[in-house]
Amino acid sequence: AQSMLARRVEKQVRAELVSDSSGSMLLVREDFSRAWRRTGVALDRIGFAVEDRDRTEGIYYVRYNDPLGEQNVSGILDKLAFWSSDDDEDATAYHIKLFADGPVTRVIVNNSKDERDTTSTAKRILTLLEEQLR
Predict the structure, then answer these.
(1) What pTM did the predictor assign?
(2) Do 122 and 23 contact (CB within 8 A), yes or no?
(3) Closest CA to 28 of 102, 82, 92
(4) In degrees rounded to 5, what are phi and psi of residue 116?
(5) Torsion sign, CA atoms 86, 87, 89, 91
(6) Which of 19, 99, 121, 131 could pair with 106 in a Cys bridge, judged by C-beta atoms 3.0 to 4.6 Å apart?
(7) Are the C-beta atoms of residues 28 and 60 closer than 8 Å to each other?
(8) Are 96 and 43 in contact (CB under 8 A)?
(9) Which residues contact 77 (CB under 8 A, 6 or more apart)?
(10) For residue 57, with 0-12 CB atoms within 10 Å meaning exposed, 13-18 middle and 19 or more buried, which class applies?
C-alpha cells in the first residue's frame, strides 16, 4: 500500500482562477472544444439559466441571481409582498465568454453590454465554474 501511495501521480489541475489588471479569469487547460462542452455542463450543474449560446463566438448567455449581491437586500415589506413576481427579475444577464489560446481556454465574465465585468459577482461566477471544471 505504501508503494502504491508513493507512485500515485499528482492530479493535474485542469482549471485555475487567476487575476490580472483587467479582472479575474479562469484558465482551463483544455482545448476550446472540450472546454466549451464542459463549461456548458458545469453551468447546468450549478443551476445557471442558460438563455442562449453561440459556439462560433464562444459565448454562453446566462442569467444569475447572486444570493450575496447588493440587489438582493430587501426589507420586511419586500418579504411580505406576496403579489410581486418571481426572482427572475432580480437575475442579472451575463455573458460567459471562452477564448481559445492553443491548449488552454480562457473564460471571462462580461456584463449584458458585453463589457468585462470586474465585480465580486463575476469573480463568484468564475469560482463556481472553477469548482466544477477542476
Answers:
(1) 0.78
(2) yes
(3) 102
(4) -55, 125
(5) negative
(6) 99
(7) no
(8) yes
(9) none
(10) exposed
